[in-house]
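Intended use. Records like the one below are meant for learning the mapping from a protein sequence to its folded structure. Do not use them to infer anything beyond what is encoded.
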Amino acid sequence: MTASTPLTSTAGVRIPAAPRLRAELRRRNEGQSLLHYLAVSLSASVLVLLLAIAVAVIGLPTLVGGSAMTVLTQSMEPGLPPGTLVVIRPTPVEDIRVGDVVTYQIRSGESAVVSHRVTAKTYTDGELTFVTKGDNNDAVDPEPVREVQIRGTLWYSLPLLGWVNSILNGANRTVVLAIVAGGLFLYAAVSVAGAVRDRRRATASASAADA
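Structure written out for the chain above:
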């Protein structure tokens, strides 16, 4: 039977080698566990942030039949500066009130739109129309807005996320979402594999220390 070789500490106390080694391994494992916890927490925070952005930019607008758009001009400053994400939802014209922000086609039937605030409701040739104005503009828009031009009213807005929405528009949306999802799954797989590997190493080291 072979006895463990004793070690002498700086305090002059003789400590057996195996307990000393186990204590050292325990300290190392605690440090690795803290780093692993911080890495997992950071990953979870990033994942939650990405999911929240996806819900704000894609999920909620799709749910109500609306759409997300990016403010590109300064006409609605300071409330809606360039880069702001604005999410609009369909609204019956009779429910649109003075003070609402409406998104409408600059010319009926064309894709270009603008989001301005309603300053008055009028009737033009018996049709309900709206006088609109950008908050940062000196004068109202030159032509009244007709019902056929209106895409919806402002539901909510998020600063800076408009640039994210611009990146995710069109064909880019599918590609970017696929890359993000693939990257998250890959990172999760690597993190799990690393945790399993570290646990096995710690177990093997503890077993060697007890031998």
